[in-house]
Request: fold
Amino acid sequence: MKKYVSILKRTKLFSGVGDDDILSMLNCLNATVREYSKGEYVFCQGEYIRNLMILAAGRLHIQEEDYWGNLNILNEIRPGEMFGEAYIVPNSGPLMDDVIAVEESVVLFFDIERILTVCPSACPFHTRLVKNIFYTISDKNKSLVQKLSYMSQRTTREKLLSYLSDEAKRQNSSSFSISFNRQQLADYLSVDRSAMSNELCKLRDEGMLDFHKSEFTLSQAK
Amino acid sequence: MKKYVSILKRTKLFSGVGDDDILSMLNCLNATVREYSKGEYVFCQGEYIRNLMILAAGRLHIQEEDYWGNLNILNEIRPGEMFGEAYIVPNSGPLMDDVIAVEESVVLFFDIERILTVCPSACPFHTRLVKNIFYTISDKNKSLVQKLSYMSQRTTREKLLSYLSDEAKRQNSSSFSISFNRQQLADYLSVDRSAMSNELCKLRDEGMLDFHKSEFTLSQAK
DNA sequence: ACAGGTCTGTTGTTTATCCAACAGAAAGGA
DNA sequence: TCCTTTCTGTTGGATAAACAACAGACCTGT
Reply:
């Protein structure tokens, strides 16, 4: 468990907590760890979750597949990010989607009850942790709203532009790379891959942006 | 402030807290109240929020309007629901959307810092409150994901069916009424009103559902 | 270097959405 | 009650997305 401390100290959840304290908190929170290989399912739709998870390494997709096999990527989890927070409410029902490792991944599991019910005064950093989790959930909330704003765009072009400009803002540069391949990006934005590919090339021809593989550069000039 | 206790005791935020304790907590949390008339803005895009809000009465829409005047209703806030939780993170930037009262509404404002920083042991129900807020944010998170799953449907028909079937599930009956009018529902699902209206009638003609005004009944038979 | 698979761009056809415009129904106010 | 405004359903033409199919580029492992 010790080897994950260096990863955890850089997460939002444990920001401001010292190495030794993290280690003692991992015990306090009954943390367990498990590794997943590429393509393996972390959770399947219908399961009941009683944990809060942090992705220590790798990459996960929260996705759902309907009767006809259409895949929708609801969210992408990157290292240091938390997930499962939507199901920590008692009686919140079974998981509505699948969580799958798209790369070799390491997941940490925390006992949610211990986070909320143990008296904060018993553990000096517990208050800090609660605050951090709070901020993290709140942050995720914001990113969900952000995705909703991509999705609420009517055309593929508008969806692409709002996603890419947000990504540029997030990475603080007009040149940036995304972790999605074309099919994944299309699933993420809920559009057709070929139509999206087409639209990307049109945008490039019009001088709005440029790209090579997954490296994008947005043009300043409109 | 006393007259809001009966409303607050039924909210998720104060569930399990007695009347007297609610009243003392309102002081503890530096709560203020304000009424809004129909059409009035509670917040405008660009403002900075340092509060957590509860809608005591009425109805709010979280919405955004783009350069060309296209309106997107991102979420609807109903009485007892909390909002603003996405902006409680320090340095989370200005509000990205508008919050507007679509009915005569009453909003309670809480000082977010007091919720998270006051020592829980000072106020016996503080721990309970933190837990409740936690659950509430988590719940909202879930409903955002739910909306994402409507939006990720490709066709207007699928969006309608997923929204309506979820609403039937939520209201626990195949007959239910929705608070949106047609234009609002179209904005909520990010589709064209006339096309949606058309699709609704097709679904009715095919025997999938029935409706009068905003009263819907889903058919059991496929 | 080669073979197999995946990823990406490209095209043409089908289909659905968007948009504008209108008419009847419903609601609200004077 | 009448008038006005809003809401809803309906239609047709312009536009865009979905879909299928394919070819070349790019990986990957042998």
Observations:
- Chain B has two domains: 2-142, 153-218.
